[in-house]
Design brief:
By secondary structure, the protein is α+β, with helices and mostly antiparallel strands. The protein has 15 helices and 6 strands. The relative contact order is 0.09.
Length: 375
Amino acid sequence: MAEHDTSQEKTEQPTPKKLREAKQQGQIPRSRELNSMSIMVIGASGLLLFGAFMLKSLSQMMSTGFSLTRAEILDKQTLFLRFEQAFWDALAGITPFLALMTIVAILTPLLLGGWAFSVEQIAFKPDRLNPISGLKRIFSAKGLMELVKAMAKFILVSVIAVAFLWSQADTFLNLGNEPFIQGLTHAAWLFGFSFLVMSLALVLIAAIDVPFQIWDHSQKLKMTLQEVRDEMKETEGRPEVKSKVRALQQEMAQRRMMEDVPSADVIITNPTHYAVALKYDPDSMAVPVIVAMGKDLIAFKIREIGIESGVEIFEAPPLARALFAHGKLGQEIPGQLYYAVAQVLAFVFQLQQARQHGFDLPDRPDPYIPTDEQV
């Protein structure tokens, strides 16, 4: 009973197949904190990088917009052209920043889990409208974790923001003493730098949240020992099915092999335990080929078909064992057995000629088998 309980505990790491199926269903590790941190930090850096250019474009747009003459204000066509020009000036000023943020928003998810699109995730599910299920999600361990992260972010960002603004208080107060354009540029830079400093606080939150999300995702996908076994059976095939397939394959191979026996020129036997059928056509073959081979019951079947088909049966136990041990079905005979097989085939061909024309029967040879090839 204890062993059964252990097999039902999710103690095994998810298999590659399990991970692939989870990704297809949209179940991948995601960290909102990583996305937020990337957007905030890169956004703040983008403000510092493109801030002067954006400020110059917007200033030019406002300057152009507020320098209209009375005649231009009363002329609808001119007024429309001025508004259109102001729109394109503003768009040109913020386009580099918007392009940067778009790239960050698209590429950040690739850092953790990669892209995953699943129709199941966007499909309508009635249980999502169930208030009881919603309350369970809110008061779950994950909901508690989200609350802790939100409080931590608020406290951390607040502390860093207050400390930084307090340290830069004199600089902010002195902005009023600077010329307008210079003060405006300095203020924009201070705003971007303050934004960057406060955004860097999210790096610590993301550094904690990313490993937690990876661990949590792995825990959710853990499998029981029985699930791993079932998956292996499905992937590799059940042993009984594989055994049945192998048996069918062997049966089909033997059937094809038996169909080639009548085309053989000679069957060399043990005489009872082994049988090897050889075919040799001087016009199309350089070396004799093994068309059938087997032992015991298969050898008996080969001999039986050979006798029915009129194939010559030649008893040579050492040669039969050597061919069976070193030869391969459908391939040429081993080179070290060329001479022995040539003796047998020469005898068979002479025997057929003698029977056909009434000549004296040739003497039966004793094929020479090299010592190393004897089995």
